[in-house]
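Supplementary Text 2. Reproducibility record for the structural model of the 194-residue chain.

All settings were left at their defaults, and a single model was retained for analysis rather than an ensemble. We include the record here because the model underlies the residue-level annotations in Supplementary Table 4.
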Amino acid sequence: MALVAVKPTRIDTAIANKIAGRTNPEIEEAVEALTWGADEHVLLALAAAGWLYTRHRPAEERNAANHILAVSLVTAILPHILKSAFDQVRPDRLTIRGHRRGIPFSGRARDAFPSGHAVHMGALASAAGPLPPARRRLVRFIAVGLSLTRVALLAHWASDVVAGFTLGIVIERMMRPWTLTNRSRKPPDRRARS
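Retained model, structure tokens:
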């Protein structure tokens, strides 16, 4: 049994009711395919592949890959821990009309809070900070879009996604001092001063 019961807000319920009443199977199938872009298994595989690729690249690229892999691991584990502490029914379990319109069932029924997909995407959006402006905007646009797929599928309430996205940003920012340091720098040679 979870420690804390989380209730959806009125805004959450209104958004879920609008989606349930206006969606269709084609939209839901497309959104269901898109949501895989924020899945922890896909992201961990990509982060690991990027990490392997950068092993013989310049130190700056290796450090960035180390950071992305570490953040991906933390954002894959933490939502599972939080879901065991928080208890919230997914919106897809509360709609009959939505299922007739193509809404699928997502995950475990009481694991709505927080959205793990949104945690990953918040961390990715935050990690895009050092990128050039056009790339940074593109990454952040994709991250927000993929997070919103969880609301469109009624896998999460809108507040679950906002909380998850925010948590991802916080995690990425908190890990920067440990994972983005340049460990390849050599200490100054004291003998050279003699």
